[in-house]
Amino acid sequence: MKKLVAILGAGESGVGAAILAQKKGYKVFVSDLGKIKEKYKNVLSNYTIDFEEEKHSVDKILCAELVVKSPGIPETAPLIVQLKEKGIPVISEIEFGGRYTSAKTICITGSNGKTTTTLLTYHILKNAGLKVGLAGNVGKSFAWQVADEEHEVYVIELSSFQLDRMYEFKADVSVIMNITPDHLDRYGYDMQNYIDSKFRILQNQTSNDYFIYCEDDEVIKNELRKREIKPVQIPFGLGMAAEPGAGVHENRIIINFNQNQFSMSILDLSLQGKHNTYNSMAAGIASMVFEIRNEQLRESMADFKGVEHRLERFLKVHGIEFVNDSKATNVNSTWYALESVHKPIIWIAGGVDKGNDYSMLQGLVTNKVKAIVCLGKNNAKLHEAFGDSVANIVDATSMEEAVKAAYYLARNGDTVLLSPACASFDLFENYEDRGNQFKEQVRNL
């Protein structure tokens, strides 16, 4: 009798886990409470994998030996609570994929910058000729790649939700970019729960592994004082470079690793701005662990194209620049965005508020923002936070409305910045959908 694996959620990660489970001889059942996208339904049908949509057949799922859960399903969901009570193990797709590969892994987490750092690291390793896979929150499902196209090394972006359901998985190189309040609604509004979740990236690492972290981040520094860290620690920051470590000296980034020093002018980096200096240093260290030569590293850091929906300067209309930063789903990301724009800003913000504290934006908003367009079903918190400091605050309930309002409020030389500081699920499928709609409406002006 084949063992049953139930997979909750039929997006990229769920379908990938289903394919791997079937390949490994399990009986597979995929269940999604929402509608399954056509392309994923076709894949499941082609593999003759049993699935259902818009419901959970609880009795069937409770017969599984193992459940692989989509990171989007909260721990408080009734079905997850029932599985816990029955003692049925619930794991993430990354944990499941990790059981069937001996490839090396570079795992990157953080509240901000993790996608850029992940894509840059992947770009460097790929250009250097390594057989490398891109997985986690970006790229193709990790489990799917393990099933279909094994690589030597995987660069994996991990959210706290993915880490929460990882137990035996081990990163060869772990990276924490920063930790700022985010997703607190999923962590009982307790910052320590969120920090603990991020630090799970270190679990199972040994003294033969590496831990790369930002030493300018107070939360990380405080946490390191409380914990015993087994892997080799490699800090990066804007001060002098440690040994091993990365830093900045006379406008050059310096990386020291294994008797090798890498140096490059900040002005030659394809990614500009302070936050991107951090991203470049973290990616650079991770690549040097894999013995990428200095010339190759320099070349890849200079020609990297950046990330769609992250401070994407994308079009000028009548002298007004439109910047798509839809990926900014928390306050800290938006802080970087506001900080990096040096012209008067019409700021499009709002969405599903995850317990945001807007006070850290107050100074930047007062000095740089001339109008705010609130794009969400409930904009009260934005009005409350900035009503006294910005004269023009208007509401919009669709992207078309928001872009038109911003365009009318802007003048030649201004910047319209979509940087929501919130999740997108009230009006959009996800942040990509929100960013794509923004670009489409700007093109329509």
UniProtKB/TrEMBL annotation:
Keywords: ATP-binding, Cell cycle, Cell division, Cell shape, Cell wall biogenesis/degradation, Cytoplasm, Ligase, Nucleotide-binding, Peptidoglycan synthesis. It is found in: Cytoplasm. ATP binds at G110, S111, N112, G113, K114, T115, T116. Residues 108-285 form the Mur ligase central domain. Pfam families: Mur_ligase_C, Mur_ligase_M, MurD_N. It comes from the Bacteria. GO terms for molecular function: ATP binding; UDP-N-acetylmuramoylalanine-D-glutamate ligase activity. Pathway: Cell wall biogenesis; peptidoglycan biosynthesis. One of its GO terms (cellular component) is cytoplasm. GO terms for biological process: cell division; cell wall organization; peptidoglycan biosynthetic process; regulation of cell shape. Its EC number is 6.3.2.9. InterPro entries: Mur-like_cat_sf (IPR036565), Mur_ligase_C (IPR004101), Mur_ligase_C_dom_sf (IPR036615), Mur_ligase_cen (IPR013221), MurD (IPR005762). Belongs to the MurCDEF family. NCBIfam families: murD (TIGR01087). Cell wall formation. Catalyzes the addition of glutamate to the nucleotide precursor UDP-N-acetylmuramoyl-L-alanine (UMA). This is UDP-N-acetylmuramoylalanine--D-glutamate ligase.
